[in-house]
Design goal:
Layout lengths: L1 H25 L1 H6 L8 H26 L2 H22 L6 H28 L5
Helix pairs in contact: 1-3, 1-5, 3-4, 3-5, 4-5
């Protein structure tokens, strides 16, 4: 139950991060029209990024203790690396397309959280959990 809640929270955080990057890339003026300029601040972006990464790391580690799936753990690592590359690319203006990497990283983490939930449930159903 606890791990499922963490993965659901992580899925929401990662999806919100991806949606935020998509909106900032596609329609930045929309935020001003809606009075949501604070979403464009660097501190908000880093906070959302940190939340998504922290919850993903915690969920991956705790989930791995239950299901022992290196595939799920590696997928989290890949998703976090892509999100990190996108966020740093955006913040430091290192290369074009950094926003797309951030969106992809957020979506990858959503998939990882869902796969983690499935692996935990499968493991518990087969009585392999401690």
């Amino acid at each position: 139950m606890y791990l499922t809640w963490m993965d659901r929270t992580g899925s929401v955080a990662s999806a919100t991060c991806a949606a935020h990057c998509l909106i900032l890339s596609a329609a930045p003026a929309l935020l001003s029209l809606l009075g949501l300029e604070f979403l464009r601040h660097e501190a908000f972006e880093w906070g959302l990024f940190g939340l998504a990464l922290s919850v993903a790391a915690l969920a991956a580690g705790l989930g791995y203790r239950v299901h022992r799936s290196p595939w799920v753990l590696g997928s989290f690592g890949a998703g976090m690396a892509v999100l990190l590359a996108g966020r740093l690319g955006e913040a430091l203006a290192l290369y074009e397309g950094a926003g797309l990497l951030a969106i992809l990283g957020g979506l990858l983490l959503v998939v990882c959280h869902l796969r983690n939930i499935g692996s935990i449930r499968a493991c518990k159903a087969s009585c392999c959990s401690p």
